[in-house]
Design a protein that fits this description.
heterodimer; A: 320 residues; 11 helices; globular; B: 123 residues; mainly alpha; Methane Monooxygenase Hydroxylase, Chain G, domain 1; 4 helices
Chain lengths: 320, 123
Amino acid sequence: MDTAILIFKIVMVVSVVLLHVAYVVYFERKVIGHMQARLGPMRVGWHGLLQPIADFIKLFFKEDIIPFSADKPIFFIAPVIGVIAALGSFAVIPLWDGFIIADINIGILFILALSSVGAYSIILAGWASNSKYSFLGGLRSSAQVISYEIAMGLSIVGVIMQSGSASLSDIVNAQADGPFIFTQFIGFFVFLMSALAETNRVPFDMPEAETELVAGYATEYSGMRFGLFFMAEYAGMFVMSSLAAICFFGGWRGPDFWIFSHVPGIFWFLLKVYAVIFFYFWIRATLPRYRYDQLMSLGWKLFIPLALANIVITALWKLL
Amino acid sequence: MPGTFIPSNYLPIIIICIFATIIGLSPLLIGSLLRPRRSYRQKLLPYESGNEPIGEPRYKFSVKFYIVAMLFVVFDVEAVFLYPWAVAYDKLGIFGFVEMMMFIFILLIGYIYAWEKGALDWE
């Protein structure tokens, strides 16, 4: 019986995530369209609401082109690894009070570990395609992802010190007196910027810098295989935004007065997640891309010392 | 039985990973029934701006990538050491603080050395 409930929960969460992936693309196109004084998708359905479904159907009917020099088994599994890494993280994210698929005490470490596994999908795709653009894209991307992973891992240590636990539910519960953003703003800044680099978003979208690398590691992928990379990227964005909402904004906790205390927790959680996602889109519409050497020195020379300083400050502050 | 430990908390993670594999593979399988197959030599060439590919795609690349990989190992291990310390920080008190400051200080020396040697520069 427990297993049935568990499987029902998993199916529910995964379907909601897939729906989210479809519609966050629409949301992105709309937001960026309006920021650039355009309308965004308008043709398919009312204000283009059916656009994601049309795109999805189109992907099914696209020919699957595999270059003859590609390393086929690795070429095939690379996008699937990306999807597993992105969807697996949802097992430890608490959506509201008491709702979590696997309540393990190292939730944060698990998410960071899976995001490292996600880097494999990119480097394997770049290597197996056996094309110059893919190879360069995969190399650049793996160096970028592992560099920013350190800054990201260090930026969360302050949060763990404050809550005394690495379980995501405990971290949310520790924020009953107020979200950690007020005490951990350095950590939050480093985390947000590293999350942009981890998910390959503008201004750090070096792996798929289309003006120099065509499409980076995904150059040789077409049709549904490309769609899987896309899915993994947007699901990964949702994971990082959830982590930001949980660690710094208090997850499912909302303001506790008047009618606000009766609003269900999932509402607050999604509000915070979509606020972070909106911020991602806003940055994409605003900033140009970094140069690769600037990106690497920013990560190594600014974010890592900042995150270390944040840890020392938090330790001193806790001690006093 | 001694020595047998079944982490039941982790069972859902295995299930969700299996489920994610199905999600990842099923669109490819469904797609393979629907999509056309009309390939010829030119279409299957690796992309190189429309020209025939010249030379090996996996040529020599910058040694900087190796240096980043090595630095990553050092600093990621540091981050992993910081996690259990952070969880137990309240219980460790002043002793834990001094210990970890020494650890971070030693690492900082290595970090400054790498910086001075130019390992963090991309020129």
